[in-house]
């Protein structure tokens, strides 16, 4: 079986690539100001770091739900001539337009790091949804000037485009793995304490990656010492786009991913600054007979994709 229909169509839209190459740096500049310091409140809000999950999927439910309600109320108005249904349709349409613009802004924030096929798919997703928002906005204007039937037709066209855009968004998430937690695809780690390094080999400020092999695979662990001397261990692979955290910058008891500047607590794995929103997998540590030993925290096993 070949690629999905949406993917086959997008693969032919190579004219989107030059547009993306010019637009993406501007989006990065607008969203990522100050990110060399590890994050900003605006960027964290757009990424959904404060929410603990990506913000774009939650916001995209607003226009889809509102426009679906508007479609139903329009149908009731056509059948019954109900003024209440007419007003409800217009109100739901307006809410959808506002939600659509907000979802688009957050979506561009997610798109700023993509490349290759996922970047082109993201551009197609944005253009189709942008057309849907534009037609819905036009529909509001037509309704306001008394051209309700023309407004309904514009809205139906926009709603159809939004459906296509939603499908492309699903391919981005499920086909390309956009904004998923990469750690859940790794082996959860040993369930019993396992020696990984001599304690004397870990300096106070070091970020040390160690690899552990098991029956279910291999996992990279980032070892460090907290400022109080405690040995800490989290996944060495950034859950955002799999960046190598051992190559990142350390600031206090946090590490900043070298790829996209996500910041994590070295002991708890908490995502402090985006674009990452999920915590890193963490591991219990102890020192036994001069060796640093680790075992997987219970939540690692629960989150493991099987």
Question: What do you see in this structure?
Answer:
- By secondary structure, the chain is of the alpha+beta class.
- The protein is built from eight helices and ten strands.
- A hairpin with a 2-residue loop joins strand 2 (208-214) and strand 3 (217-225).
- Helix 4 (55-80) runs antiparallel to helix 7 (148-174).
- The chain is elongated and about 80 Å long.
Number of strands: 10
N-C termini distance? 24 Å
Mean pLDDT, rounded to whole units?
91
- Proportion of beta-strand residues: 15-25%
| Number of H/I helices | 8
- Global morphology: elongated
Gyration radius from CA atoms, angstroms: 24 Å
List the helices and strands and how they pair.
Elements: H1 5-11, H2 16-31, H3 41-47, H4 55-80, H5 83-111, H6 116-144, H7 148-174, E1 194-198, E2 208-214, E3 217-225, E4 231-235, E5 249-251, E6 254-256, E7 263-265, E8 271-273, E9 282-288, E10 291-296, H8 298-303
Antiparallel strand pairs: 1-10, 2-3, 3-4, 4-9, 5-6, 6-7, 7-8, 9-10
Helix pairs in contact: 4-5, 4-7, 5-6, 6-7
Note the main attributes of this structure.
10 strands; alpha+beta; Rieske Iron-sulfur Protein; four-stranded antiparallel beta sheet; six-stranded antiparallel beta sheet; 306 residues; 2 domains; 8 helices; single chain
How is this structure best summarized?
The chain has 306 residues and is an alpha+beta fold.
């Amino acid at each position: 079986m070949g690629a999905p229909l949406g993917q086959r169509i997008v693969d032919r839209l190579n004219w989107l690539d030059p547009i993306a190459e010019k637009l993406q740096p501007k989006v990065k500049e607008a969203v990522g100001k100050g990110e060399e310091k590890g994050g900003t409140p605006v960027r964290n809000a757009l990424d959904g770091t404060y929410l603990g999950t990506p913000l774009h999927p939650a916001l995209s439910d607003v226009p889809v739900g509102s426009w679906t309600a508007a479609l139903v109320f329009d149908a009731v108005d056509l059948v019954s001539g109900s003024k209440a249904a007419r007003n409800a349709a217009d109100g739901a349409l307006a809410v959808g337009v506002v939600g659509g613009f907000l979802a688009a802004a957050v979506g561009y924030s997610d798109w700023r790091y993509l490349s290759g096929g996922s970047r082109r798919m993201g551009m197609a997703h944005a253009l189709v949804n942008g057309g849907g928002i534009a037609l819905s906005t036009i529909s509001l204007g037509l309704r306001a000037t008394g051209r309700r039937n023309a407004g309904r037709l514009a809205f139906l066209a926009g709603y159809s485009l939004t459906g296509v855009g939603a499908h492309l968004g699903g391919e981005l998430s499920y086909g390309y793995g956009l904004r998923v937690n990469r750690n859940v695809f790794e082996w959860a780690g040993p369930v019993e304490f396992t020696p990984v390094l001599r304690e004397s080999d870990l300096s106070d400020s070091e970020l040390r990656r160690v690899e552990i092999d098991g029956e279910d695979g291999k996992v990279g662990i980032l070892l460090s010492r907290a400022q109080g001397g405690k040995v800490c261990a989290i996944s060495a692979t950034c859950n955002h786009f799999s960046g190598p955290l051992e190559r990142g910058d350390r600031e206090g008891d946090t590490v900043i991913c070298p790829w996209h500047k996500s910041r994590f607590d070295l002991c708890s794995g908490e995502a402090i600054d985006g674009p990452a929103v999920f915590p890193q997998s963490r591991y219990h540590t102890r020192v036994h007979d001069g060796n640093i030993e680790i075992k997987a925290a219970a939540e690692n096993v629960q989150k493991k994709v099987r």
